Amino acid sequence: MPLAASAITVLIGACGGPSQRSRDTEIVPRDTAHTGGWISLFDTRTLTGWHAYQQPSGVTTGWSVDAGAIRTDGNGRDLVSDQQYSSFELDLEWKVAPGANSGIFYWANEGTNEIYENAPEMQVLDNLGHPDGKSPYTAAGSLYALYPAPLTAVKPVGEWNQVRIVAHGSRVQQWLNGVKVVDVNFNSKATKTTIAASKFKEWLTFGKSRRGHLGLQSHGGTVWFRNLRIKDFS
Questions:
Q1: What is the pTM of this model?
Q2: Are the C-beta atoms of 62 and 90 separated by less than 8 Å?
Q3: pLDDT tens-digit readout, 146-173
Q4: Residue 145 belongs to domain spanning
Q5: Tens-place pLDDT, residues 67-115
Q6: Helix, strand, coil distribution of the chain in percent, nearest 5
Q7: Using 50, 70 and 90 to split pLDDT, how confident is the model at 9?
Q8: What is the spatial distance between Cα 81 and Cα 85, in angstroms, rounded to a whole number?
Q9: By CB neighbour count within 10 A (0-12 exposed, 13-18 middle, 19+ buried), where does 173 fall?
């Protein structure tokens, strides 16, 4: 897809690591800015609190619980949280089987045919075993097809990767294994220009919501998610 000049600038910075300003600035300093505690999003035994995209609560076809983790083999609808969130700090871990592809969505609604038509996605991927891993824009940790992540931030297949996503207002930071890989303001002119130069321009509601469901993608191959928890600052 064509890349806006702003996106190219971000690629240069991201491939060499976040800028000094990015490293020094956090939206919500961990454990200090708010008194709210962590809320578990997964009880390790059931999929209570989740449902398949555009399905009633409790319908989780294509998803299962496997050794204390949420598992997909890539043959079902995406899984979304029953609850919706606006400003939050999300922590979770994921690992993939060889060649697997998935994602973590936020601010999702269920008003489009597919969740990716409205919600931003943090990529989950086997960088070495999937073609998307060749580009920082679609590699693990990226804000999929919009803002890149360093190819070296992800751990090898079979190892658990730690994710932190912090959203406050229109600004979002994505962290992978302790590295801040994305820092974006969805209300900024630069981000709007980047979206307009991407495939997402054809979906008018993409990236417009500031409140919505969390989502886990079922897209190809086996993927596990565990230790899902959230601080809700809404």
A1: 0.87
A2: no
A3: 999 999 999 999 999 999 999 999 999 9
A4: 5-232
A5: 999 999 999 999 999 999 999 999 999 999 999 999 999 999 999 999 9
A6: 15, 35, 50
A7: very low
A8: 10
A9: buried
**Closest by Cα among 220, 97, 223, 231 to 156:** 97
- Residue type for 13, please? G
3-state secondary structure of 192: helix
Q: What are the angstrom distances between the C-alpha of 186 and each of 55, 60, 156, 165?
A: 28, 30, 31, 14
**Residue at 102: amino acid letter:** S
The size of the chain, in residues, is: 234
The two tokens of residue 193 are 């220009």
Reduce the DSSP state of residue 66 to 3 states and report it.
Answer: strand
What's the domain count of the chain? 1
User: Could you tell me the two tokens for 3?
Assistant: 């890349």
Question: What is the CATH number for 184?
Answer: 2.60.120.560
